[in-house]
Amino acid sequence: MINIFEKGKALGDKYMPEESFLEVYRVPGEEERPFVIVFPGGGYHHLAGHEGKDIAEWFNQRGIHAGIFYYQLKNLNLDRLLKQVNDLVQELREHAAAWQLSPDSIGVIGFSAGGHLAALCSTKNEYKPDFSILSYPVISVSRPHLHLDMLTQVLGAEPDEELSKQYSPDYLITETTPKTFIWHTAEDKRVPVENVLLYAQQLGTHQIPFELHIFEAGRHGLGLAKEEPYTQAWSLLLEKWLEKNQLTPQGEKR
User: Fold this and answer.
1) Distance (Å, rounded) from C-alpha 167 to C-alpha 116?
2) 74 Cβ contact partners less than 8 Å away, ≥ 6 residues apart
3) Which pLDDT does position 149 carry in this prediction?
4) 149-170: per-residue pLDDT in tens?
5) pTM score, two decimals?
6) Taking the mean position of all CA atoms in its chain, how far away is CA 2?
7) b (16+ CB within 10 A) / e for 63-98
């Protein structure tokens, strides 16, 4: 099991963990609450700080526990990361009372490469989250919509097509994939918007509830998108989606 720390562990904007750990942001009190595991992006070669702490605090402000999963990037191994998250979700469910969390309200949110990891956890793992939030995620490491930098970082320079499909979540969706909220921007030059279209199409095919928002404006890696007044509405839409799915504690909606 990975190490778990309370919030306050200082990290820079770009960080390359040598081993995985979870930094927990709890909401005070004894009430059982949902828990969201946050996966920052960074192309699997660093972790972007603005896609970690800011996001965890956003959930806390809405009465939801959060934990930033600082996943191991040295000697990167996706199967090892997936097992770590699988074991973490199992641990949280089995010890939900000790964590003051709702055992059937454990979610993931991922950005870019972190979105890829969140989508893989939602499709490949035995212990899947109960809901998934994907922010401008890398979905395909298979041609023709692959993300070349990610392909090299994760699978090497020239993986065969079958291996690529094993790590492209749009090929892995089943009836056990959780309900999903997705957002992206049409202007994104690093991760083509086709990535989320592929994933949403397969969610629809398998009758998995999902909500998809594609904004016209915005570069890749926006996080809370404070620099884009129109696109930052994604977080307001997410808040409504959380409320609709009864994942926001009563009396703490903002």
Assistant:
1) 9
2) 16, 17, 18, 19
3) 63
4) 666 677 776 677 888 889 999 9
5) 0.94
6) 18
7) bbbbbbbbbbbeeeebeebbebbbebbebbbeebee
